[in-house]
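quick one, 171 residues, struct below
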Amino acid sequence: MMIEDKKGVSPVIGVILMVALTVIMAAIVASFTAGLGKVTRSPPTANLVVEDDPLTSPNNCTWYTLVKITHKGGDAIFINETKTIITNKETGDRIECDGVANTKLKWYSSTYNSSNEPDTITDYVFSTGEVRYLAVDGEGTAGFNVSGVFNIMIIHKPTNQLILDVDVFCE
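---
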């Protein structure tokens, strides 16, 4: 008769289970710290209609409206979270604006201030049914005080994704 010694089997199985559990826990921790477990933010999706808005500025104003943008539906857009790029397709001239305004390009609603410049919007939310305008400073902004085809790009900065990319003919 053979005598069986089973004392050594139980500790070996215990060690294997502990090693497997440690490997699984390390994989879970690594996936969260490597960013695989984080929630990603998606850019707003909106139906924006862009059209030419010929020179609606008052007399003696160097700023003039380039395009009118109508929000026809979808998510609200926080303009201060956008980067707007306008490119003259014929000359290659380009203006960029982080957020609402800079010295050459600004978003505005429809009013002009006492200096005959478009009032920069203070309500950064662009919602369904609203209209906004993009105005450029015609003084010192070569390539934008002429008629032609312009590419309008609006980029959602937090996700670096396009919200709008459209060509429009402006007179």
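The two ends are 105 Å apart (CA to CA).
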